[in-house]
Amino acid sequence: MLKVREMTPEDIEEVFRINQENFTTDAWSRFAFEKEFENKFSKKFVLELNGKVVGYIVYWVVRGEATIMTFAIDKEHQNKGYGEFLLRESLKKIDAKRILLDVRKTNLRAINLYRKLGFRLVSERKSYYSDGENALFMELSR
Predict the structure, then answer these.
(1) Burial class (CB in 10 A: 0-12, 13-18, 19+), 67
(2) H or E stretch including 46?
(3) pLDDT tens, position by position, for the chain (142 residues)?
(4) What is the CA radius of gyration of the chain?
(5) CA 102, 52, 59 angle in degrees (round to 5)?
(6) The pTM is what?
(7) What are the φ/ψ torsions at residue 10 (nearest 5 degrees)?
(8) SS in 3 state form for 62-122?
């Protein structure tokens, strides 16, 4: 059974593992995830499959605007609709009229998911990532 719930400090180890597995450059440190629990703007959710954490998403929500800071699904559970489920369900749990994100220009799977959910391209950010890759800046208004 799939379930989206708020992230707890006990989830950090598994969330950190998923993050490291999915991001080579620009991955978050364990410390960065720990600091999110001190950030009043941070809204953090995990996706559980039969009680096991298989994905996570972190938003920063400020004055009705949310930014997706990091979002990933365990590699073993990708391409099964879990990312879409987590994104849809977590969006219901945040109070924001506008949702923003940056995504690698080459991450076509993620870009297609965001477009499917109504995100539109705003601009391209040159050399945004530490390896020099460009990012697409996208937004969803609701």
Answers:
(1) middle
(2) strand 42-49
(3) 999 999 999 999 999 999 999 998 889 999 999 999 999 999 999 999 999 999 999 999 999 999 999 999 999 999 999 999 999 999 999 999 999 999 999 999 999 999 999 999 999 999 999 999 999 999 999 9
(4) 14
(5) 25
(6) 0.96
(7) -65, -20
(8) ECCEEEEEEEEECHHHCCCCHHHHHHHHHHHCCCCCEEEEEEECCCHHHHHHHHHCCCEEE
Can you tell me the distance from the alpha carbon of 128 to that of 65, in angstroms, rounded to the nearest whole number?
A: 21
b/e burial code for range 15-50 (CB count within 10 A of at least 16 → b)? bbebbeebeeeeebeeeebeebeeeeebbbbbbbbe
**CA 7 to CA 10: how far, in whole Å?**
8
Residue type, 64: G
Residue type present at position 78: Q
AA letter at 95? D
At 90, list the tokens.
């977590």
Domain boundaries, the chain: 2-100
Q: Which top CATH class is 2-100?
A: alpha beta
